[in-house]
What we know:
The chain has twelve helices and 15 strands. Helices cover 41% and strands 20% of the residues.
Amino acid sequence: MRVRKREVKIGGMAIGGSNPIAVQTMLNVPIDDIPGNVAQARRCAAVGCQILRVTCPTPADAKCIEAVKKAVDIPIVADIHFDYRAALACAAVGVDKIRINPGNIGSDDRVKEVVTACRAGHIPIRIGVNGGSLEKHILAKYGAPVPEAMVESALYHVRLLEKFDFEDIVISIKSSNVPRMMEAYRQLSAVTDYPLHVGVTEAGTYQMGLLKSGMGIGGLLLEGIGDTIRVSLAADPEKEVEAGFNILRAVGYAVAGPEVITCPTCGRTQYPCIEIANEVERRLQGYKKPIKVAVMGCVVNGPGEAREADIGIAGGKNEAVLFVHGQPVRKLTGDNILDQFMEEIYKL
């Protein structure tokens, strides 16, 4: 069962409450390249990104936030560090959410200015705590960025905002250490009802980032923790979006679009199972029906697994048995099994 948190509205959507878990990413084009940011934002929106974050180092960079917001019809989050005036500039151009670390933007008066602008614009604030940048006094107290230190930091920032009667808050509490990150989120979830943005920060290269994120994000989702997710990868943000939806699908959440399953193959395989599976997945990119497609290698487990899918094939020598909704329909033969199979998929 998912842990129920309060609802927070971000532009035209909402997270927390009974809302679906939202997948987000962050643009990585240099901020002064506005056309490049706009183009990348459109690519992210095209692959299904539901919340999009853009860095804003200075007040002048709010013009990029504004351009991106005009280009896509999804909520835009401004990522702010150190300069509170950048947050004010983003609020002025109508950003949908602001991500700040209240402890690094200056005095209480500056925090209050940001809160006042966000309240006026109905703009929520995400408190983003990272294990690598904890406050000196908290790090000195615990000696290391242990889960208890990260939770204390998050709650410290929450109190800064609550002091000014601001409660339109989302919290993240990330670490590159998966067990530490998971325990921190568990502890935080137990003591607050603010919605949680879940992720593994600085997860690494594409392959290792996928593994860490699958374990950390997926593990917490299985425990019912998480209202929005970002898979941080050293890769194009479109890949982060794809990975986010795949993690949701893997832990059992309904996700728009097809799921392709395939066996790992072995010496019994007599047709190009792996190649067909990869090509089926490629051709189904952008396909919106939530179907399960099986591409299986042989007669041992293939027919049984294929029957569990909405549509599937189990291969043999120069042929494959087609299953639709669990029932064998016919054999696909010849050198164009893939094309025949795709035709059957599109008929569903």
